[in-house]
Amino acid sequence: MNHIAAIDRTSRPILRERGQREVFCGLTSIVWLHRKMQDAFFLVVGSRTCAHLIQSAAGVMIFAEPRFATAILEERDLAGMLDAQEELDRVVDRLLARRPDIKQLFLVGSCPSEVIKLDLSKAAQRLGAKHAPNVRILNYSGSGIETTFTQGEDACLAALVPEMPRADDDAPANLILVGSLPDIVEDQFLRLFAKLGIDNVGVLPARNAGGLPTIGPNSRYLLAQPFLGETAQALDNRGAQHIDAMFPFGAEGTSDWLTATAKAFGIDEAHVEEVIAAPRERARRAIAHHAKKLSGKRISFLPDSQLEVPLARFLAQEVGMTPIEVGTPYLHQRHLARDLDRLPDDTRISEGQDVDNQLDRVRADRPDLTVCGLGLANPLEAEGLSTKWAIELVFSPIHGFEQAGDLAELFARPLRRRDRLEV
Ligand code: SF4
């Protein structure tokens, strides 16, 4: 059943839905996490379905030395827990003996491992003690029960937080950049932070096991992704301070993100302006090029990646599109407040999903573009509606000044395609 509730920060009504959902599970995150963490291995403890999902999400890839695999739970595992734990130990021992390059091993839970209540945290502790100090062994859940695909990253990063070395109470302030970004984008941001005068910067996830940032009361953390609620909570619990900012999409989102960070480090406003003025202007010009196509167009987001709110903010504020409905699986109000504040008052915000109701609203609204999961795109296209796959936005470099034009282009492309089809 639907109900409307008020949001404190914005007094904006939120439509909350609980019903049938159409999203990928958290195992999907392994596809980008294994590229980011270069000495990590992801061992999914699951079924053949889980193995198929990761293989198809990752595309057809032939690796000499793959960095993810599935330990398949067989029927006899379902019958006796002892067997499953012993078998897992054997699989891990064999894997680590053969692959000395692995420095971090994640045991990733799935629906089947959760259904049979296979305790992967115990397994991680037992195996971690055995293989320390050469290999760090952690666990998290990528199960599709009540989760969405970007939450796989959240759960993985939250598992890493207790491993971060403790900084002394009087250690100099440091910045922790949180969220997995393509290396090229991460490097752009690190250069900008250095120009701003923030040199003591660590990244979660680090590219290598030894690179985890230190954390203490003088640490400030900056989220690069809006879907990291559990990780943020774990960082709060370790005493780090959250930097409140818009997410770094487009010229204005990126400016706000950098400016808020500089302010948290006491950097002079005039210096910030000097550093960001030129790249911000480049980004504005790149966006303007695509805004001609997009301005005035109506867009709906169905809940999928959790990037929906900041992307809708970008499209409304910087491109001139009109967001009709912005649906997101979970609304992290604290992290999204600044983006939410900049959405038009009459944009409908929904949290959770009841797919039939949502499709009915899309059919009634008939937006020019609908951002949705793969499974819903084809039926909507068949009804004459243009769609954009939400997952493509997660796999593309879209953060920061230099990617702002490409981000706008990703939304312009399906509209151009439809124009061509209609000629
Ligand atoms: S974890 Fe669950 S939802 Fe994901 S592939 Fe495995 S069985 Fe399917």
Automatic annotation (TrEMBL):
EC number, as in UniProt: 1.3.7.7
Domain Nitrogenase/oxidoreductase component stretches: 31-413
Highest taxon in the source lineage: Bacteria
Phylogenetic lineage: Bacteria, Pseudomonadati, Pseudomonadota, Alphaproteobacteria, Sphingomonadales
Gene, per the UniProt record: bchN
A Pfam cross-reference name: Oxidored_nitro
Family, similarity comment: Belongs to the BchN/ChlN family.
Pathway(s) per entry: Porphyrin-containing compound metabolism; bacteriochlorophyll biosynthesis (light-independent)
BP terms from Gene Ontology: light-independent bacteriochlorophyll biosynthetic process; photosynthesis, dark reaction
Catalyzed reactions: chlorophyllide a + oxidized 2[4Fe-4S]-[ferredoxin] + 2 ADP + 2 phosphate = protochlorophyllide a + reduced 2[4Fe-4S]-[ferredoxin] + 2 ATP + 2 H2O
Subunit structure: Protochlorophyllide reductase is composed of three subunits; BchL, BchN and BchB. Forms a heterotetramer of two BchB and two BchN subunits.
Function text: Component of the dark-operative protochlorophyllide reductase (DPOR) that uses Mg-ATP and reduced ferredoxin to reduce ring D of protochlorophyllide (Pchlide) to form chlorophyllide a (Chlide). This reaction is light-independent. The NB-protein (BchN-BchB) is the catalytic component of the complex.
Broad class of enzyme this protein falls into: oxidoreductase
Sites where the protein binds [4Fe-4S] cluster: C25, C50, C111
GO molecular function annotations of the record: 4 iron, 4 sulfur cluster binding; ATP binding; metal ion binding; oxidoreductase activity, acting on iron-sulfur proteins as donors; oxidoreductase activity, acting on the CH-CH group of donors, iron-sulfur protein as acceptor
Presence of keyword Metal-binding: yes
UniProt keyword list: 4Fe-4S, ATP-binding, Bacteriochlorophyll biosynthesis, Chlorophyll biosynthesis, Iron, Iron-sulfur, Metal-binding, Nucleotide-binding, Oxidoreductase, Photosynthesis
Cofactor(s) demanded: [4Fe-4S] cluster
Protein name per the record: Light-independent protochlorophyllide reductase subunit N
Entry keyword annotation includes Thylakoid: no
CC cofactor note: Binds 1 [4Fe-4S] cluster per heterodimer. The cluster is bound at the heterodimer interface by residues from both subunits.
